[in-house]
């Protein structure tokens, strides 16, 4: 190696501490921020449109278990005929009797709570979950029938 090592050593004394502090700051904050990518459960959960759900329910043969995760008063105001009510707050307990490989289609008002329900159920080992996009708002906007008082 040729040249004077003193300027390089001086540069390293100034640069290394700064680089270490910067790396520590980035690493320390990494666990505290919200993930920008979907959770593993969200990545596993399939989605379907209300049109696809309507077609599935009209098709002869075995029907999937459709679970409405809204609250009782929302369900009472209008729901799909034959669905099972299991409010998000206790969806795990409500579905404890359901085998973990059962096909479960989850619906709520708009698709948000049903996505959360899918996360919770996937964390409990359920493997065949589908979130109905748009929920009951999309169902009714498409003119599909709902049971109402």
Secondary structure layout plus pairing:
Layout: H1 5-30, H2 40-44, E1 46-48, H3 50-58, E2 65-68, H4 72-77, E3 84-85, H5 91-94, E4 104-107, H6 112-123, E5 129-132, H7 135-141
Parallel strand pairs: 1-5, 2-3, 2-4, 4-5
Account of the 3D structure:
The protein is globular, with a radius of gyration of 25 Å. The chain has a domain at 40-141: Rhodanese-like domain (Oxidized Rhodanese, domain 1, 3-Layer(aba) Sandwich). The chain is α/β, with parallel strands linked by helices. The protein has a 5-stranded parallel sheet. The protein has helices at residues 5-30, 40-44, 50-58, 72-77, 91-94, 112-123, 135-141; strands at residues 46-48, 65-68, 84-85, 104-107, 129-132. The longest helix has 26 residues, at 5-30. Helix 4 links the parallel strand 2 (65-68) and strand 3. 46% of the residues lie in helices and 11% in strands.
* Average pLDDT for all residues: 82
Q: Tell me the number of strands.
A: 5
Major sheet summary line: 5 strands, parallel
N-C termini distance: 88 Å
- Helix percentage: 40-55%
Keywords:
149 residues, Oxidized Rhodanese, domain 1
In short:
The chain is α/β, with parallel strands linked by helices and 149 residues long. The chain is 46% helix and 11% strand.
């Amino acid at each position: 190696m040729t040249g004077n090592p003193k300027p390089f050593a001086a540069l390293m004394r100034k640069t290394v501490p700064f680089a270490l502090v910067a790396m520590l700051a980035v690493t320390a904050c990494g666990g505290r921020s919200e993930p920008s990518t979907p959770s593993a459960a969200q990545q596993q959960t399939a989605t379907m449109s209300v049109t696809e759900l309507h077609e599935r329910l009209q098709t002869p043969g075995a029907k999937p278990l459709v679970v409405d995760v809204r609250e009782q008063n929302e369900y009472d105001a209008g729901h799909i005929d034959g669905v099972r009510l299991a409010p998000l707050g206790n969806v795990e307990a409500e579905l404890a009797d359901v085998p973990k490989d059962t096909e479960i289609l989850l619906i709520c008002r708009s698709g948000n709570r049903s996505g959360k329900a899918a996360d919770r159920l996937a964390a409990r080992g359920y493997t065949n979950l589908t979130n109905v996009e748009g929920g009951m708002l999309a169902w009714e906007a498409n003119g599909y029938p709902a049971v109402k008082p």
